[in-house]
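We treat protein structure as text, and this decision shapes the records that our systems exchange. The tokens are whole numbers drawn from a learned vocabulary of local backbone shapes. Below, we set out a record of this kind in full and without editing:
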Amino acid sequence: MLRIRSAKALDDYRVRLTLTDGETVERDLTDIIWGPVFQPLLDDYARFRQVQVEAGTLTWPGDLDFDPDTLIWGGAPPSEPGSRPSRFLRLPRRAPSAAW
């Protein structure tokens, strides 16, 4: 199971992720950091830059986190063995009723 080993905040709500297999990918989180839960990250960019990795996913102060499969694959992981995540991906906003 592929997970996140380390992360670095970049400009414009992007992150560079090193995965557990050693591969490095970049994710643009602009469209998924929204709503009242994530408002502190939008109000204070320095807080966004405090990103950490815990249990294979991104976390921020205040118990904020994302599903690691969403960050790595943009949704559920593919069922095909040997699939590789996209090197660059802008994660799309989902409807408020969609489950993460």
Notes: The mean pLDDT is 90. The helical segments are 35-43, 45-48, 68-73.
